[in-house]
Design goal:
It is a single chain. Helices cover about 45% and strands about 15% of the residues. The protein is built from 24 helices and 16 strands. It has a 5-stranded parallel sheet. A 3-stranded antiparallel sheet has the order 14-16-15. A hairpin with a 3-residue loop joins strand 15 (about 460-465) and strand 16 (about 470-475). Helix 13 crosses helix 15 (about 280-295), helix 15 (about 280-295) packs across helix 16 and helix 22 (about 430-435) crosses helix 23 (about 445-460). It is elongated.
């Protein structure tokens, strides 16, 4: 498509100027009428957050997205650019995206006065109409609004009283664009004050210059409630000028959380081809995240980011890949013991309360995995504690008896698939237990056999010793007997 290259051609093309909020509104209306997906890749917000954002756009509101870390606030803001026209005309050479039909800057007015309909026109793609700034304590008014540039004054030989010596900040340069400020509460209160008139009137003042610049900007702010109440705050007059405050949240179901994790995880092609992650393990990983959000050891105000599951999934794949490479195998299936490699993803994503600090991040991570494993075990196998003595046959009787006979089994982190299966097959009654309570067959059966083994350990039916490179399962009384032997030696 050939775009008009001069002001005269633009006028003849019947181009009509619109504000950026009108532009977003009209394009959203078209998408809704055509049943098109507006926010592609955002999952779990279809009935909550996204309708609120759409209502805000239809109302031509500036928006504050308020939510804990890892709730896709910035991603949503970045997707708003898809609601803008593909290209927008500006006065050629303008640093403030001047509308050719409604010029704003001194530069644009002078150029149009000089060249008239021959004024050159440039076209800006919508991807260039998005400006994002992370609010940090060192952000200044000059960064956001602008300041007098002495170098420009010297170069152009202009006095400081001439507005052409002004160097405009990010906000004026975002004219006719989307401007996002992330973590708004971290912006100093005196800097937040500088946004008042821009939001309400479009006025800006730079070093005594009273400029009437009718800035046309769609503002989107993001904030974390923890920052909002503790480290910083949004000053009341500014909050009052932000028309829509929208609350985000974490995924409400395991299934949605799984979809987010698999969508966002960055995996190498070799990992995708060579490693299979059973559904059971994907659910187990998300269950760990849900357990972390409910844990008494973790600060609920800080939240548990969706990045925990995403990083954990990547680590799970890498743990399986490392084992596969060590054993010279071309394909493998992830195991529960591979979740050992997920621990670093957990410890780095949670903020502990005092009790959690006393336990230590590693112990907290292992406890979370233990809780998740026990829940998954009880979802597929009978609860050992609920079995009434003598009234029904104990489905774990054969397994108990095997361990009581002094037998033990070691699951090594780096064992080959053959060694792994042989180790599980050693445990008498384990295969039959998995066959009777699941519909798994073939290689998938070993997934549930391992789950049963870990689950029995979490239910204190068998003992699990965690060592540096393996997990050893044996009779629950073995440790007690070992302790008695130590006292006898004394």
């Amino acid at each position: 498509m050939d775009h008009p290259k001069t002001l005269g051609e633009l006028k003849k093309s019947n181009y009509t100027s619109r504000s950026v909020k009108e532009e977003l509104r009209e394009n959203l209306i078209k998408k809704l009428q055509n049943k098109e997906k507006v926010f592609d890749g955002i999952l779990g917000f279809d009935d909550t957050v996204l309708p609120d954002i759409e209502r805000a756009i239809l109302s031509r509101h500036n928006v504050l997205l308020l939510g804990l870390r890892g709730q896709a606030k910035t991603r949503i803001a970045r997707l708003l650019v898809n609601l803008m026209d593909e290209y927008m005309p500006i006065v050629g050479g303008s640093e403030l995206n001047d509308d050719p039909l409604n010029p704003m800057s001194r530069y644009a007015h002078d150029l149009i006065a000089e060249k008239g309909d021959a004024t050159p026109i440039e076209w800006v793609h919508r991807s260039e109409r998005y400006v994002e700034k992370l609010a940090t304590p060192d952000v200044s008014v000059a960064d956001l609004i602008g300041d007098v540039d002495p170098i420009k004054a010297a170069t152009l030989k202009l006095p400081y009283s001439d507005e052409r010596v002004i160097h405009f900040g990010l906000i004026p340069r975002a004219h006719r664009s989307i401007f996002v400020i992330n973590e708004l509460p971290d912006l100093q209160a005196r800097i937040q004050v500088s946004l008042f008139n821009i939001l309400q009137e479009g006025d800006i003042q730079i070093r005594g210059f009273k400029l009437r610049l009718p800035l046309d900007i769609q503002f989107v702010f993001t904030a974390n409630p923890e920052d909002y109440t503790n480290r910083g705050s949004i000053i009341t007059p500014l909050k009052d000028r932000i028309e829509s405050q929208i609350l985000t949240h974490y995924p409400k179901t395991i299934e949605i959380s799984r979809k987010i994790t698999t969508q966002e995880a960055r995996l190498a092609e070799a990992q995708q081809k060579g490693i299979k992650v059973p559904d059971l393990h994907e659910i187990l990983l998300e269950t760990i995240s849900f357990a972390a959000r409910d844990s008494e050891y973790i600060d609920e105000k800080s939240g548990v980011s969706a990045r925990l599951s995403i990083s954990g999934y990547e680590n799970l794949m890498s743990a399986a890949e490392r084992r596969m490479l060590i054993n010279g195998e071309k394909k493998t299936t992830a195991r529960i013991i591979d979740f050992w490699g997920v621990v670093p993803a957990i410890t780095g994503k949670v903020e502990l309360v005092y009790e959690g600090e006393q336990e230590g991040p590693y112990v907290v991570a292992m406890n979370l995995m233990g809780q998740a494993i026990k829940k998954m075990f009880l979802d597929h196998f009978p609860n050992p504690d609920a079995l009434k003595r003598g009234e029904q046959k104990d489905p774990y009787g054969t397994v108990r008896a095997w361990f009581s006979g002094g037998n033990s089994v070691d699951l090594l982190n780096d064992s080959s698939d053959k060694e792994y299966k042989e180790a599980l097959d050693e445990v008498a009654g384990l295969r039959k237990l998995a066959e009777e309570h699941t519909e798994a067959k073939g290689d998938e059966l070993y997934v549930y056999m391992e789950l049963a083994l870990h689950g029995l350990a979490e239910c204190n039916i068998v003992n699990k010793d965690v060592m540096e490179s393996s997990m050893s399962f044996r009779d629950i009384l073995a440790n007690m007997l070992d302790d008695e032997d130590l006292f006898d030696d004394e």
